[in-house]
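Any chance you could type out a protein's amino acid sequence plus the matching backbone structure tokens because I've never seen that pairing?

——
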Amino acid sequence: MTRLFMQSNTPERIGHVTLTHPDRIVLRPPKTTKSDLAHYYEAIAPHMLEHLKGRRIAMLRCPDGADEDCFFQKHLTGDLPSGLTRDAGHLQIQSTEGLLALVQLGVIEFHTWGAHAPQHDNPDRVTLDLDPGPDISWRGLIEATQLAHGLMTEVGLAPFLKTTGGKGLHLVAPIRATRSWETVRILAHHLAQRLANAMPDRFTANMAKDQRRGRIFVDYLRNGNGSTAICAYSVRARPEAPVSMPLPWTALDFHNDLRAAAFNVRNALDHVQTHADPWPDYAARRTVLTQRMLDRLGL
């Protein structure tokens, strides 16, 4: 993204949305304005909406920028801007206009539920969030990610890879929406515990901070009812404005650390435009969690 922020604080029209305070600094360093953020989301929307439409969202709002108070929110009161709808009180984004309307309200991050309308009681993905301790190298994280990929594949899942815009990686396996939240949460916990039991020097399924030193926490809690995970292509409210990027498995390279701001609001769009769809067969790879599969896992 080569566009730099404007020098005027006059409201700016982006698509059908009027952006107030467009040159307010919302992220730093480097200085990233509300206008920069809105233009990024406008440009990335055709790709991001594939991951947003039909899903309830949570959002991180920083009305005065990430240097000031930020808060998570799942609901909006009053009349909704165009492009947004409610589902049992929860927000859903239906269009680029809705995405930009939330940026106008100070939203920086977008997080999505693990279920898709209309089957909100039945998740359609299993997410393992590999959260490394501060002393874990990129090589160590890649090796752990490959081990987690192997386990998920062994039990019949088809995991896809995504950066988080932080220090970890997500493995996202699409499933048919036929099982309850509790069943899917137990499955994810089982996978996390199997990794921790098999390689306790490398993995932990315990979220306690003192258990993560020198190890990777396999966070299975993204799979509970109401829990969310950062949406693909969402910016994070952190220095360097990192972006969560879906990737092919071939992108994992010991010599190219893809964590944190390797993808950011300034280069993410160029990456998307110059690389093939990283998840072209995502929908086709949905796994049916059969009773036989669950019985074999002891669930």
